[in-house]
Design brief:
54 residues, alpha+beta, globular
Length: 54
């Protein structure tokens, strides 16, 4: 599943950052600037965001 991070859907990828959730990894970023997380790392990130830790 790919989620494009832009306001009101006005941008067209790859212009906007994307969160690409795959079976074993999650790729976050834009064009040549990406971060690849394992699903476990992504789950930790989600928990920290939900708990207002970051």
């Amino acid at each position: 599943m790919k989620i494009v991070l832009c306001n009101d859907g006005t941008c067209v990828p790859p212009k906007c950052p994307v969160v690409d959730i795959q079976d074993h990894q999650v790729i976050i970023g834009e064009k040549d600037n990406v971060c690849t997380l394992t699903r476990e790392q992504f789950d930790i990130l989600k928990t920290k965001i939900k708990n207002n830790e970051i």
